[in-house]
């Protein structure tokens, strides 16, 4: 047992990019396949050790943060309210006695289950999301005390969020983590906008909207996978295991609804297992996760060039902050959305598989592009500038783990090397031009 735990911790520290698979508890496999609804605690580096490099002094910090765990969209809440009670009754009817598959505690929890969210509370930061932001801020402050002082100052810090409750609340709880709850009201924020050119640039990009977001072709690989034998067999097996009769069969939509509910409830409640996770099979969790991998690969990832190319505006904002000759602000933190984080990760060339992801690549261990790991709630990507003698170097953190940029072997990457590798991002970033923006369009 001891060695197992040790292996688990070891892998969590050093193997984040490679696999969290090894340290799973067999009955909790589903936890590692929750896609973009994965809570941050499953992927975070929670060791708040100082990130000191001999001879180097941290100078500036820039972070992009996805809002923490939230409540579902109104459509999903409505579906949950309508369909889940029907499915619950069928499961209970078909499984009157406990079994290996559905234990007494599972059936009890299912019988007692009620949706604790109503439609007026859509897409708001959940309690877990508040904790995620407080904890993230506290750990970052322990690592970089000189860049994240515990007394707020309008000159030291620059914070900004998009126009949404969940990013605004994320900013508030992050500030509570840094300065304490009493001081959060002192923090100044610029007026948020829905289509912020740095925080949510894609909302301003006509070409991305036409070529990607509104293009049915962009969901083709996802649909092909939904029709694949992997998917059909997984749904079939779940129906069989839950003893559903032919005229009761759970559809793809039903199974997806169960998966989403399992994911959200796992994120919301640290202690109690959602009964919908008990109903799910691990194979279904895996195919659902891969469906998300495909969906986001083609919408926010490497699938189309314009998607990640346009993120040069955010990349340049980061570089300008790090390179600014002014000492202030020392730290810039942006609270934004999954779509921004994934496009920025792709712009940096991170988690780029050697060939495009397709419906044929259902292979949990081989793919780098796995949204459960790279795009959980609270996902964050940070760049920290160090001065080492006369040289400037940059540390890159994703989910608080050190990551190596494609051009760099070392943890601290030469700033000049970064500027050379991303030369096009710097010199060819005509946003309106690459987005084919017409003044009339926007
Ligand atoms: C695995 O998880 C189950 C259910 O949460 C728990 O009862 C069991 O003790 C865990 N086993 C190990 C080895 O951690
Ligand atoms: C500081 O706060 C004020 C509002 O109180 C704001 O107008 C100003 O732009 C802020 N930023 C800096 C860097 O002073
Ligand atoms: C999936 O299968 C359905 C039913 O056979 C079919 O109508 C649909 O066109 C298929 N979708 C794709 C993307 O192949
Ligand atoms: C992703 O990887 C492919 C294959 O190695 C490479 O051709 C492509 O340039 C990479 N994309 C980015 C944005 O780095
Ligand atoms: C960077 O790009 C500019 C403009 O495209 C070009 O003039 C310059 O030579 C490039 N520098 C490097 C190091 O590739």
UniProtKB/TrEMBL annotation:
* Location of this chain's protein in the cell: Cell membrane
Per its record, the protein catalyses: 1D-myo-inositol 1,2,4,5,6-pentakisphosphate + H2O = 1D-myo-inositol 1,2,5,6-tetrakisphosphate + phosphate; 1D-myo-inositol 1,2,5,6-tetrakisphosphate + H2O = 1D-myo-inositol 1,2,6-trisphosphate + phosphate; (2R)-2,3-bisphosphoglycerate + H2O = (2R)-2-phosphoglycerate + phosphate; 1D-myo-inositol hexakisphosphate + H2O = 1D-myo-inositol 1,2,4,5,6-pentakisphosphate + phosphate
Mind telling me which GO cellular component terms the entry cites? plasma membrane
* Keyword entries, A-Z: Cell membrane, Disulfide bond, Glycoprotein, Hydrolase, Membrane, Signal
Which GO terms of the molecular function aspect are on file? acid phosphatase activity; bisphosphoglycerate 3-phosphatase activity; inositol phosphate phosphatase activity
Record-linked Pfam families: His_Phos_2
* UniProt keyword annotation of Ribonucleoprotein present: no
Under Enzyme Commission nomenclature, its number is 3.1.3.62, 3.1.3.80
Q: List the disulfide bonds.
A: 56-388, 262-277, 408-413
TM segment ranges = none
Q: Signal peptide span per the entry?
A: 1-19
Q: Which family does it belong to?
A: Belongs to the histidine acid phosphatase family. MINPP1 subfamily.
Name the chain's protein: Multiple inositol polyphosphate phosphatase 1
């Amino acid at each position: 047992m001891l060695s197992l735990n040790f292996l688990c911790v070891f892998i969590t520290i050093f193997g984040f990019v490679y696999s969290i698979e090894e340290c799973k508890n067999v009955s909790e496999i589903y936890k590692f396949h929750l896609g973009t609804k994965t809570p941050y605690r499953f992927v975070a580096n929670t060791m708040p050790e100082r990130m000191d490099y001999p001879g180097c002094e941290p100078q500036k910090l820039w972070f992009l943060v996805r809002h923490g765990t939230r409540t579902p969209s109104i459509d999903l809440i409505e579906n949950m309210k309508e369909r889940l009670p029907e499915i619950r009754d069928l499961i209970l009817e078909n499984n009157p006695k406990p079994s290996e598959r559905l234990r007494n505690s599972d059936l009890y929890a299912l019988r007692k289950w009620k949706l604790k969210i109503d439609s007026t509370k859509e897409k708001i930061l959940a309690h877990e999301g508040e904790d995620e932001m407080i904890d993230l801020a506290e750990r970052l402050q322990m690592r970089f005390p000189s860049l994240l002082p515990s007394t707020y100052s309008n000159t030291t810090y620059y914070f900004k969020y998009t126009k949404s409750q969940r990013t605004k609340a994320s900013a508030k709880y992050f500030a509570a983590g840094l300065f304490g709850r009493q001081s959060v009201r002192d923090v100044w924020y610029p007026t948020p906008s829905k289509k912020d050119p740095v925080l949510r640039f894609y909302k301003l990009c006509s070409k991305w909207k036409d070529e990607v977001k509104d293009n049915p072709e962009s969901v083709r690989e996802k649909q092909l996978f939904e029709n694949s034998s992997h998917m059909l067999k997984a749904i079939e097996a779940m129906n069989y295991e839950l003893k559903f009769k032919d005229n009761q069969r759970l559809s793809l939509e039903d199974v997806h609804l169960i998966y989403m509910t399992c994911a959200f409830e796992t994120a919301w409640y640290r202690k109690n297992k959602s009964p919908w996770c008990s109903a799910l099979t691990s194979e279904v969790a895996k195919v659902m996760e891969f469906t998300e991998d495909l969906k986001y690969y083609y919408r926010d990832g490497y699938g189309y060039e314009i998607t990640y190319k346009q993120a040069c505006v955010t990349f340049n904002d980061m570089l300008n902050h790090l390179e600014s000759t002014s000492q202030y602000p020392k730290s810039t933190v942006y609270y934004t959305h999954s779509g921004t984080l994934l496009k920025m990760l792709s712009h940096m060339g991170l988690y780029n598989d050697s060939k495009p992801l397709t419906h044929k690549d259902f292979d949990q261990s081989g793919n780098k592009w796995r949204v459960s790991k790279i795009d959980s709630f609270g996902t964050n990507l940070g760049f920290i500038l160090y001065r080492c003698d006369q040289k400037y170097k940059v540390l890159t953190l994703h989910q608080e783990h050190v990551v190596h940029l494609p051009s760099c072997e070392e943890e601290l990457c030469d700033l000049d090397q970064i500027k050379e590798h991303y030369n096009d991002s710097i010199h060819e970033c005509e946003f309106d031009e690459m987005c084919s923006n017409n003044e009339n369009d926007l």
